[in-house]
Amino acid sequence: MTELAGQATFICGHPKSGTSLLLSLLDSHPQLLVYPEESAYFRRFDRLTAGKTIEQKIDQAKFHLIHMFEWDAANPPPSQEGYPDRDYSAFSFEAANHAYRNWMEKLGFEDRNLLPAAMFAYGEISGQLSEQTVRWVEKTPYNEKYTSRIFKYWPDARCIQVIRDPRDNFTSYHKKHPDWSPFDFAYSWRSSTRTARKNLRRFGKNHYLCIRFEDLISRPAETMERVRQFLEIKENPAMFQPSKAGKAWHGNSMFGNRFEAVSSVPKGRWRDSLSSKEVRQIEAALVFLMRRWDYTLEEPVKLSDWFFWIDYVIDRRRRDRMQSASSEQYSHLEDEETEL
User: What does the pLDDT look like over 220-255, one tens digit per residue?
Assistant: First the structure.
């Protein structure tokens, strides 16, 4: 099992791009140990525990890595707020915490083992960890931004990034974050998608794979075969039936749809959901990347829309620099207070 700790697989991509669907199609494959929830290891846990000892980090794992196994729909703890439909009452949280500490002892008290220990603890209490297991799988949006850390900890890791038509991606994401403008979203999608190309060049096709969400739902057999070969796992019919923690999964659509299998319904939803102005803004902002990923523009980009986008980018970068400087200053003041 110590060798298995290095066989990491990370699903990457922008939020609401289809990463959950891909995870669900890998969930029941007998050779994979798939974590049922987002660990947010790099985006949350790693930051919260920066500077702490390894023992302190292990203590924090029960609050930020394996906390979901305390979730009970009938008696929800505070950490379950926002996830009332998720129920892990069939698992013992105490058993998960005990298993986590045992796995840290087996793997070694190093930072690189904090996440695999959580994977194996889940696999142990769920019965999904077996001699057949050859890889473990974790999915958190924006994992693509942390590939330097990923490949430093796990040189044999594989990453799969899902790319989705930005118009459909915005349509879904805007339901969850109505305060985001088309340009706000485009700025984020552009960063994620540019990072995909950089990672592919940097780590190579044997370690980094990009797939389009539209191909996954329109040509699932062909697309999942690419995924299967990339992960070097055996063919299995479970790869075409979405599941979560071994149980049938009906999707996490922002439109309330429930699916029994892979469905192409989410494709092209933007046509009935976005205004012509929103479409123009997204296409003007992302025209070059959309062409790179074979997404057809609704109409030629107007120069005026493109200039509005450039103005947004200049202002956004200015605001980001100011926020970064403010954060550094605040951090410096905190350090001074600590010394005092």
Answer: 999 999 999 999 999 999 999 999 988 887 655 544
HSE-up (13 A, CA, CB side) for residue 300: 2
Alpha-carbon distance 234 to 87, whole Å? Answer: 30
* Confidence class for position 85, pLDDT limits 50, 70, 90: confident
Structure tokens belonging to residue 230: 């990339």
Residues 152-184 as b/e (b if ≥16 CB within 10 A, e otherwise) read ebbeebbbbbbbbbbbbbbbbbbeeeeeeebbb
Q: Length of the chain, please? A: 340
* pLDDT tens digits along 171-195: 999 999 999 999 999 999 999 999 9
How far apart are the C-alpha atoms of 164 and 162, rounded to whole Å? 7
pLDDT tens digits along 290-313: 999 999 999 999 999 999 999 999
Mind giving me the DSSP string for 230-273?
HHT----GGGGS-EETTEE-----TT----SS--STTTTTHHHH
Q: Which token pair is 89?
A: 């009452």
- In the block, tokens 């697989």 appear at 9
Listed residue (254, 256, 302) closest to 281, CA to CA: 302
Q: How much is the pTM?
A: 0.91
Domains and CATH numbers, the chain: 4-267 (3.40.50)
Burial letters 238-275, b for 16+ CB under 10 A, else e? bbebbbbbeeebebebeeeeebeebbeebeebbeebbe
CA 116 to centroid of chain Cα atoms? 16
Q: Return the closest-CA partner of residue 39 out of 146, 127, 126.
A: 146
Q: What percent of the chain has pLDDT over 70?
A: 91
